[in-house]
UniProtKB/TrEMBL annotation:
Keywords: Electron transport, Mitochondrion, Transport. Belongs to the ETF beta-subunit/FixA family. This is Probable electron transfer flavoprotein subunit beta. Its cofactor is FAD; AMP. It comes from Dimargaris cristalligena. GO terms for molecular function: electron transfer activity.
Length: 266
C-alpha cells in the first residue's frame, strides 16, 4: 500500500462554551438560536489526519505510506455543511454530507450513524477511519466501536498517539484507567481520539477561502440504503437539581451527628 486514504467524522454539536438549557416541552435541549460548532473530539480527529499527512509527506524514507487523501463526513441537517467547511479549511481534501432534516438529526442515534459510515466506507474504500471518542451532546461514545464491529475491522479507542509504522501497520497508544496501553494492528482500522492526542489548529483565512471551492457531495440515508429510524425514545429531559450550600461544623462528633440524623447516610 503506497498511499493511504483517511476518512474522518465531523459532527455538528452545540458549542462547548454555550450554557445548555432544556426546551419548554422537556423533550430535548434548546437548539434554536444557539451557537453550534464541530464536536471537539472530531476536531482532534481532523487535526490528527492532517498531521499524519504532514509527517509522512515530509519523511518518505520512514517506510510508511503517503497520505493521499482526507475525506470529511458529517451526518446532520443542512447547516452541518458549515462544520464540513471547517474541516476542509483545516486540511481535509473533500467532504461528504449525509443530509437529514432537523427532527431526524435530533434523533440520529449511534447505530444509525455507524451504518451510514459503513455504507460510505464501502464506496470510498479508506484505509483508516478516525472519529472522536464521543460527541459532547449525547456523550454516547458508541459510534466508533459499532462501526468497527459492523466492518469487522480492528479498532484503537481513546487514542493518545497514532503512528503509521509500516506499509500496512499502525500503533495506537490508548488511554486506560491508570495509564496507557499500546496496541499494534494492521490496516484498515478504526481509531477514536481522546483529548490529549493533539491540539487542533485554527483555520487560516486563506484556507477558509480555499475550503469554499473544495468538493462537498450531498446524499441522503436513502441513497445509502440505510434506515435511520430511532431504536430508543427519549421520554423526558430535565436539568440536574441545583446544589445546596454546604454547612460548617465545629467537630467530628457534630459532623457524624448531622450525617446520621439529618442526611441519613450513616
Amino acid at each position: 500500500m503506497s498511499s493511504l486514504r483517511i476518512l474522518v467524522g465531523c459532527k455538528r454539536v452545540i458549542d462547548y462554551a454555550v450554557k445548555i438549557r432544556v426546551n419548554a416541552g422537556q423533550t430535548a435541549v434548546e437548539v434554536a438560536g444557539v451557537k453550534h460548532s464541530m464536536n471537539p473530539f472530531d476536531e482532534i480527529a481532523v487535526e490528527e489526519a492532517v498531521r499524519l499527512r504532514e509527517r509522512h509527506t515530509k519523511d518518505p524514507a520512514s517506510g510508511s505510506p503517503k497520505v493521499e487523501e482526507i475525506i470529511a463526513v458529517s451526518c446532520g441537517p443542512a447547516k452541518a455543511q458549515e462544520t464540513l467547511r471547517t474541516a476542509l479549511a483545516m486540511g481535509a481534501d473533500r467532504a461528504i454530507h449525509v443530509e437529514v432534516d432537523e427532527k431526524q438529526a435530533a434523533n440520529l442515534q449511534p447505530l444509525a450513524v455507524a451504518q451510514l459510515f459503513r455504507a460510505i466506507i464501502e464506496k470510498e474504500k479508506p484505509h483508516l477511519v478516525i472519529l472522536g471518542k464521543q460527541a459532547i451532546d449525547d456523550d454516547a461514545g458508541q459510534t466508533g466501536e459499532m462501526l468497527a464491529g459492523l466492518l469487522n475491522w480492528p479498532q484503537g479507542t481513546f487514542a493518545n498517539k497514532i503512528d503509521i509504522t509500516g506499509d500496512n501497520a499502525m500503533k495506537v497508544v490508548r488511554e486506560i484507567d491508570g495509564g496507557l496501553e499500546t496496541l499494534s494492528t494492521k490496516l484498515p482500522a478504526v481509531v477514536t481520539t481522546d483529548l490529549r492526542l493533539n491540539e487542533p489548529r485554527y483555520a487560516s483565512l486563506p484556507n477558509i477561502m480555499k475550503a469554499k471551492k473544495k468538493p462537498l457531495v450531498k446524499m441522503t440515508p436513502a441513497d445509502l440504503s440505510v434506515d435511520i429510524t430511532p431504536r430508543l425514545e427519549t421520554i423526558k429531559v430535565t436539568e440536574p437539581s441545583k446544589r445546596q450550600g454546604g454547612k460548617k461544623v465545629e467537630s467530628v462528633d457534630e459532623l457524624l451527628d448531622k450525617l446520621k440524623n439529618e442526611a441519613g447516610v450513616l
